[in-house]
């Protein structure tokens, strides 16, 4: 134990991505690991921090700060209390460090880039298998990262 | 600890599927869990046990038996000593139970069926991203199970 792995979780606050957080906490992370909650915002979004960080993605935001700053105003993100609570509990009971990062652009590319930039040992994403149209439009995110990310990828259903 | 999960691993003795075993042992399984090593043989293969078990898949074969019986003759499988050694060590040091099962048919369908039949909590498969032709022909196995299997699926690279 204590291998200090870094586990990325793709987060868009959909039910599937919440399942991804739950699965990662229940099955994968252990004491000493670090969770990076990865958000990818549309490149069309227009928020103050985007101008500063669009090229590189935001700095890593510690969970404590993530819970307090006005994310909606700065980044256009509305964190789900349930997700924050799950992460809060994990950071306390499992002694994992939780940070968050925000990218702008295509979720498929940005998630794959994040694997390399953040040197992720594992990436966990939700599957978006709900409905034929959603699957065609969005299901490809999980299939893309499974094929292209340079680390093991776990796809979790709702 | 002690959640008694069942973790399936797709196994064809390719480098990628060996990486899948390594990842599962190093990152996912813990004391009390059960590993099911899942083999899917071609429906064209012609071995004595196939006639008996083609419809349902073979019975679950404990690791000890799997190491000893003439698998090549009975099932057309040539287990890799490296994989057997990894599993042997895991069964001793992590106290996980290791069993094996053989199916005949389309790996995509059989792996998804196995998730339901064996009530898998997780499925781990190798990615076959080597070379464009292989990817087109075989990469779809991991993409298919990611999309269709009813449990979380982890895809591991070599």
From TrEMBL, chains A, B:
User: What start-end ranges are recorded for coiled-coil regions in this protein?
Assistant: none
Q: Boundaries of each UspA domain copy?
A: 5-157
What InterPro entries has UniProt attached to this entry? Rossmann-like_a/b/a_fold, Universal_stress_UspA, UspA
Give the matching SUPFAM superfamilies: Adenine nucleotide alpha hydrolases-like
- What top-level branch of life does the organism fall under? Eukaryota
A Pfam family: Usp
Q: What is this protein called?
A: Universal stress protein PHOS32
